[in-house]
Design goal:
This protein has 18 helices and 25 strands. By secondary structure, it is α/β, with parallel strands linked by helices. Bound molecules: beta-D-galactopyranose (GAL). Beta-D-galactopyranose binds next to loops.
Length: 649
């Protein structure tokens, strides 16, 4: 476990570099990430390289004992490159070219850009790939940031047609799979198929889903080309990419398969402000972030590679890109750091060393202010570094609970939500938050991952279920919870064969001939465990087969909660309290010990260490029998963290 920082030597006078490097080391930082936006400084004109400054920067950082994470600079192609071939630029859904002037101005489908990206990757890797201080590479920066996965440029449409041909084989198969008989959409040549934009009303959902799959594959292609070059020219170094928060536009699990490890960029306050949380939540957590936000991403990205994940960018103070940008509460930078390690991280790296006094991100805090003084976060980093030195080594273990999350299902619900607030990521996050409030550790797994050994498996938002996943669930002895819409769609976004829940009928004998979405404020009442409860937003109208027990019915007689053996089907969406209660009862059936954690307190085990993480602004008291406190105590201060070692764990 170690600390890192993101540094931009090209932003500062060279005379500062050595002091900066020394100050990083004195703060307890071991690793420094550089270079991701430096292309125009490395190659100011086509084929004219200026390596001298970067040579010296690397030497200065290495001489201070810092390990270097070097980046390929492909997120910011220089102006001369764009001018020489404007076809590199992406085209938005409005048909307009997305031009130069910020970053990420390229189309993943541009072969011309891919060749240029490979060329500069090769140059940088050839120069520094064997440098002893270079321990890892980051490819590009945040694929898809600023809504850049989908492009509708001519080359993208062209490659889409080739992709369709490879996927479907021939047009008869495509027409049948998509259902193009509808509205006379059948095609007789692949050249007739365009990208799904510009139609009078919504384009064909199967075409849109395939376009999402295609665009995701284009990201993988781009990344894979860089990985191959880095592995060739920089053997023995780790290759990673920094993923984003609440971002589902490409299949991150597939990307991770080409990397050595996954990393992600953690901005808890920006993430709270800019996403779906309601005003009350935004107020409540404005200086800490939502208690499940960072943890959700840690658990999501941890599950994607065998090696421990990294936090490549950790918010150190206010950011510049939220609708509002408050300061973190005192203690939060330390808390976020510990929380990442609690969830299995190997590295937490802060963004950025020093606040820039210029350009787009000048209002974004760093560990130092522009005048080279420590900013507020620096003291907390020092504190975390000192504490880290005292902690025994440990590895994250497999949790007892698996939450299944799938990118294709996210796209499917985006394309046909059928209710304005249906969002697969949000539904998954809510289920995660409910499980975490019960004190449970959670693995977020993919639909093709190994499910053996889990005691509880939850499918919160999986309209598309493969036969392979259905097989794994049939073979599992876990308690299984299926949320509404599970298995309801075919791989091409039609209604599942034999009606929903499609392949999951092998687990539970149901037929769902109708669904309804409900406006906010509309509720459906049912009784369970002697109390009235309310469902909201969505209902599957379920017909139960002979082997199924209906545990609760809505007041209109339709089933609300159903069960067949260890398989539970919930026919509607519930509020947070009821979701927690229901998951708690299934967790107990799975033999898991649960606890009702107070608001803002979260627990997480890493090996024999137990972390108590307090997002609230009051002291939280907890007793952990058979434990020795290594950091703090059972009285966890507001925005504080305590760590206990559990004997015999
Ligand atoms: C990240 C990005 C960084 C910087 C940061 C600001 O999304 O990777 O380059 O822009 O946000 O918070």
């Amino acid at each position: 476990m170690q600390l890192g920082v993101c540094y931009y030597p090209e932003h500062w006078p060279e005379a500062w570099w050595a002091d900066d490097a020394r100050a990083m080391r004195a703060m307890g930082i071991r690793q420094v990430r550089i270079g991701e936006f430096a292309w125009s400084r490395i190659e100011p004109a086509p084929g004219h390289f200026d390596w001298a400054w970067l040579d010296r920067a690397i030497e200065v950082l290495a001489a201070a004992g810092l390990q270097i994470v070097l980046c390929t600079p492909t997120a910011t192609p220089p102006k001369w490159l764009i001018d020489s071939d404007p076809s590199i630029l992406a085209v938005g859904a409005d048909g307009r070219v997305r031009g130069f002037g910020s970053r990420r101005h390229y189309d993943f489908s541009s072969d011309a850009y891919l060749a240029q990206a490979c060329r500069i990757t090769r140059e940088v890797a050839a120069r520094y790939g064997q440098h002893p201080a270079v321990i890892a590479w980051q490819t590009d920066n945040e694929y898809g940031c600023h809504d850049t996965v989908l492009s509708y440029a001519a080359q993208a449409q062209q490659r889409f047609r080739g992709w369709l041909q490879a996927r479907h084989g021939d047009l008869d198969a495509l027409n049948a799979a998509w259902g193009t008989a509808f509205w006379s959409q059948g095609c007789t040549r692949f050249e007739q198929i365009d990208a799904p934009i510009g139609s009078v009303t919504e384009a064909h959902p199967a075409q849109r889903l395939d376009y999402r799959r295609f665009a995701s594959d284009e990201v993988l292609r781009f990344n894979r080309a860089q990985c191959q070059i880095l592995r060739e020219l920089s053997p023995g170094r780790l290759v990673t990419h920094n993923a984003m928060l609440f971002f589902t536009e490409f299949d991150h699990r597939a990307l991770a398969a080409d990397l050595d490890l996954m990393s992600w960029d953690s901005y808890p306050l920006g993430g709270l402000e800019n996403f779906w949380f309601d005003d009350a939540e935004k107020h409540r957590w404005q200086r800490s972030g939502h208690p499940d936000f960072a943890a959700f991403h840690h658990d999501l990205y941890r599950g994607m590679s065998a090696r421990p994940f990294w936090v490549m960018e950790q918010q150190p103070g206010p950011v510049n890109w939220g609708a509002w940008n408050p300061s973190p509460a005192a203690g939060m930078v330390r808390l976020w750091t510990w929380e990442a390690f609690a969830h299995g991280a190997d590295v937490v790296s802060y963004f950025r060393w020093r606040q820039a006094p210029f350009a787009q991100e000048q209002m974004h805090a760093g560990l130092q202010t522009p005048d080279r003084q420590d900013d507020v976060g620096a003291a907390e980093v020092r504190c975390a570094a000192q504490e880290l030195a005292h902690l025994p080594a440990s590895r994250s273990r497999r949790a007892a609970v698996a939450l299944v999350f799938d990118y294709t299902s996210c796209w499917a619900l985006d394309i046909q939500p059928q209710g304005a607030d249906e969002n697969a990521l949000r539904i998954t996050f809510d289920a995660y938050a409910a499980l975490r409030a019960l004190g449970l550790d959670v693995d977020i797994v993919g639909p093709d991952d190994d499910l053996s050994g889990y005691a509880l498996i939850v499918l919160p938002a999986l309209p598309i279920v493969s036969d392979g996943l259905a097989d794994a669930l049939v073979a599992s002895s876990a308690q299984i919870v299926l949320y509404p819409r599970a298995g309801s769609k075919s791989p091409h976004l039609g209604i599942a064969e034999g009606l929903p829940p499609g392949p999951l009928r092998r687990l539970i004998d149901l037929r769902i001939p109708r669904v309804e979405s409900l406006r906010p404020g509309t509720t459906l009442a049912f009784h369970w465990h002697g109390r009235q409860h309310l469902a909201q937003r969505w209902r599957d109208c379920v017909q139960a087969g002979a082997g199924v027990t209906v545990q609760a019915r809505f007041d209109d007689g339709q089933p609300a909660l159903l069960r067949q053996g260890s398989v539970h089907y919930w026919a509607a969406r519930f509020d947070a309290a009821l979701e927690r209660e229901l998951l708690g009862s299934v967790a107990q059936a799975a033999g898991l010990a649960t606890t009702q954690l107070p608001e803002g307190l979260r627990l997480r085990r890493r090996g024999d260490l137990l972390f108590a993480i307090n997002y609230s602004d009051t002291v939280q008291v907890l007793s952990v029998p058979q434990a020795r406190w290594l950091i703090g105590s059972g009285r966890v201060p507001p925005h504080g963290v305590s760590v206990a070692q559990r004997r015999g764990a």
